[in-house]
Amino acid sequence: MNYSFDEVKKQWINKLNNMAQGDTFNLYIDNPFCVHKCEYCVYTPYVTKVNSPIFKKYYSDFMPRELEKYKDIIGMRVPDSVYFGGGTAGLVDCKQMKKIFEQIPNFKNIKCKIYENHPNFLTKEKVDLMIEYGFKYISIGIQTFNEEILRKQNRMVPEYTELRELIKHAQDNGIVVNCDILPFIEDGNMKGLKQFEEDIKKMEELLSPDSITIYPKYQELMEPIDSEYDQSKATEIDEKNYDLIVNLRRSLKKISRRSKLYSISHENLVNLEREKIMECVRGNYYLIKIDKEKFEESKVYFSSSIPRQPATQNTLAIGGLLERKTYSYHGKGFCYYNNVDENFNIEYECGGN
């Protein structure tokens, strides 16, 4: 079943006119492109060169057209957050970034602005632009410092000295900088634990971000979860990875005790009771060197998909391409996917609500 745009617009107008206390309104701006498909990635980017014909058309025609369509809706209420993700959101150049920023109503008044970045595509010009437009949070996908593993995973190796300077420049201008690490990236088993501990040590020495987000890549665990996900299969996978999770949590406790900079954001994340572990097998972990309140302010938006979106979060997703169907929703209620073909025709596909 598909919705017409008029139906989608009507639903958004009704929702924004009847927001409950505590509800948030968030924008998600999608860059569906990657220059390589990393082997570990469970998502569906469109692989192409920067400034290929389809890349150019997406940003010169499709994205401006979609932002214009939603202008009245976005203008009804200043969004609580705007999140630029992908794909590789950092492929966009400064001119394209600024054009998008300027087309979003009340952009400078949005308190929480978040941008995902690939370490090889972050530049001083981009950081300066994000400073100018008041971004609060930059997230950089490091994944591992092991160059051999990165190459096996079809991922480019960064130049860390230059990256550290860019991180410090952002931090000096009030932007919280996060870096991601993927434990068990290579084999999804216990052998990855030593590499993980080495990665955290190098992160502290080489880059020193404000926070480190740890996305465990357990065996079979990272396949996408959607409305048709088999819960019995999920439980089976959780059980299979139980020992791995216990040892990761023990490792995080050890790292936190040893580190002069980082502590675990929430101690309950490393609780070793079986019941607590099984409650949040798919949870992420955070090491932080800033105070918890500042960290929480930077995590206003929970990037999420069916069925894990918060009930109080209302997210309008703009963009997407082919298999990369971005997902808009009103809490646990009305939801739809952007189904965009190669000619940038778009259908609004019912999301199972």
Topology:
Elements: E1 2-3, H1 5-17, E2 24-31, E3 33-34, E4 46-47, H2 53-69, H3 71-74, E5 81-86, H4 94-103, E6 112-117, H5 124-132, E7 137-143, H6 147-152, H7 160-172, E8 176-181, H8 192-207, E9 211-214, H9 231-240, H10 242-258, E10 263-264, H11 274-279, E11 285-288, H12 292-297, E12 313-318, E13 327-330, E14 335-340, E15 346-350
Parallel strand pairs: 2-5, 2-12, 3-4, 5-6, 6-7, 7-8, 8-9
Antiparallel strand pairs: 1-15, 9-11, 10-11, 12-13, 13-14, 14-15
Helix pairs in contact: 2-4, 8-10
Task: Write up what this structure looks like.
By secondary structure, the chain is of the alpha/beta class. 37% of the residues are buried. The protein is built from 12 helices and 15 strands. The N and C termini lie close together (11 Å). The radius of gyration is 20 Å and the shape is globular. Strands 1-15-14-13-12-2-5-6-7-8-9-11-10 form a 13-stranded mixed beta sheet. Strands 3-4 form a two-stranded parallel sheet. It has one domain (2-350). 36% of the residues lie in helices and 20% in strands. It has helices spanning 5-17, 53-69, 71-74, 94-103, 124-132, 147-152, 160-172, 192-207, 231-240, 242-258, 274-279, 292-297, and strands at 2-3, 24-31, 33-34, 46-47, 81-86, 112-117, 137-143, 176-181, 211-214, 263-264, 285-288, 313-318, 327-330, 335-340, 346-350.
